[in-house]
Amino acid sequence: MSLVSLKEMLNDARKNKYAVGAFDVSNLEMALAVVEVAEKKKSPVILMGLCLDLQGDRLDYWLYSLRKIAQKASVPVCIHLDHATDVEFIKKCVNAGFSSVMIDGSMLPLKENIEKTKTVVDYAHKFDVSVEAELGHVGDGIVGSSEIGAPKKDTFDKPEDSLTRPDELKQFIDATGVDCIAVAVGTAHGIYVYKPKIHFDRLKTLNEISVVPMVMHGGSGTPDALIKESVQNGICKLNIFSEMLTAFYGTMKDELNAAEHLAIWPHNANEKPLIALKKVVAAKIDLVGSTNKA
Which cofactor does it need (predicted)? Predict the structure, then answer.
């Protein structure tokens, strides 16, 4: 197929009431595994890069490989920069060839979030690169595990404290021109330390207001029934990372503990962990309804 923008991909998802799985892929093997599953499922897919994995020359190496994968894929692929806060780094990623970027100003006051997001939108749109922003703040399940480098804390985030406010949503979208918006409705990044509660009344209201597709962060560990209902109420992109890592490293741990020695070729050591990771990806693609949508 080809490399596509997030706007193109999510507009179709919104129109047809499904969501697209967005998977953080820290290395080549993860990216290949995710696309292999997407091709089998005939599903569009979003491959995401985290800033920590893209520092220095790694940005060029990672993006070169991911663009090759997208060009050869038989399904639409979006390459998306996840949870970036530094405008200059975002511009660097736009210039390098991402098809989509996220500017996360969710920890800023509304006025500053709008100003920073608009700066990124104005720049990225010159190159037909889509922009995702966040309004409200999706916190962290594990203390100190922030994807955006927030300072470590001594207490767990309470999602109810930072839900997206309906009265701010239209203002934010109109002022920034953003292509999609991550909303805070009760999920958390990382591993849950409590039972998640999705505020569906809030989500329904936001969906009535928003003129752009909405994104749910913190998809790992959220019960399937809650995700399905979220998709029916406007969520068009679901972010997944922690469940992939748990499957991969949990299987790796079992394999290494059972091994007679640790001089194992990486290809052999990674075989079963990658199978476990692919099962997570396949399940999420089916769950959000993007199977056979490519």
Answer: Zn(2+)
